[in-house]
Design goal:
Strand content: 25-35%
CATH topology of the largest domain: Dihydrodipicolinate Reductase, domain 2
Number of strands: 13
CATH superfamily of the largest domain: Dihydrodipicolinate Reductase, domain 2
Structural class: alpha/beta
Length: 246
């Protein structure tokens, strides 16, 4: 049984508690834990899952002990993204050539804050950082055009405060041998009307992503092997995302 302590704000704590309840061999404790889940890295010697690492200052990331901290790059574990990543990893798509991401939100979020996860997906799927970075920024809108060393490119489109009440997400990855498509809705077309865009999303998608990410964290703990996400990748994605400020 793995004992985990949650040091998170109430909403995030409830999300992680719900995901933990779906896994076997996990118990949440307030003391004498085997591992920690927190959004505030400190001096704890415990193996740590760092929630929302994009909120950490870039200079502070460099000083964190990477061997005992797994940054929570949640979108890598999204149910709609995992099959695309597996197709890429298994060679079914060949070498990636074009990645297109649309992330449109009805909420009044900061596009730059939303950019980290999508930029990280581009780094992850291409296997490196971009050589060329072009951005276009407007109120409630942010666009990235990333050029990678092998000639591939990523187009990332983020819009917030959109009309309507529902969000929309889609991702296309086109490779030399095939293509894959991911979204958060099934058999539903994106519809535009007088009240904005409508697309039925699965509300439990974030919960499933946290569950998959927790499983990765626990497997690394129990089998004593490195996690699939490193703090250096957090740093790289933040640096690329913040090019929009320059």
């Amino acid at each position: 049984m793995t004992r985990i302590q949650l040091q998170l704000e109430p909403e995030r704590k409830a999300l992680y508690a719900a995901a933990s309840a779906r896994l076997q061999g996990v118990v949440l404790v307030s003391a004498e834990a085997d591992a920690l889940i927190t959004d505030t890295p400190g001096a704890s010697p415990l193996p740590t899952l760092l929630d929302q690492p994009e909120r950490i200052d870039l200079s502070s990331l460099v000083d964190l002990p990477s061997s005992r901290i797994m940054p929570a790059h949640l979108w890598r574990f999204s149910p709609s993204v995992l099959p695309v990543a597996e197709s890429r990893r298994s060679g079914q798509l060949g070498e990636p050539g074009l990645l297109r991401i649309h992330h449109w939100l009805a909420t009044p979020s900061d596009p730059l804050a939303m950019a980290f996860a999508q930029v990280d997906l581009a780094h992850w799927l291409f296997g490196c950082r971009p050589r060329h970075i072009h951005t276009l920024s407007r109120e409630n809108y942010l666009h990235y055009h990333l050029g990678f060393p092998d000639g591939g490119m990523a187009l990332i489109d983020i819009a917030t405060s959109r009309p309507g009440e529902e969000n929309y997400y889609s991702m296309h990855l086109v490779g030399s041998e095939g293509a894959a498509y991911a979204d958060d809705h099934r058999n539903v077309h994106l519809q535009f009307g007088a009240h904005g865009a409508r697309a039925r999303l699965h509300a439990h998608n974030e919960l499933l992503a946290v569950q998959a990410m927790l499983a990765e964290f626990l497997t690394g703990l129990r089998e004593d092997h490195p996690w699939s996400v490193e703090l250096s990748e957090t740093h790289n994605a933040l640096e690329t995302a913040r090019e929009a400020l320059n």
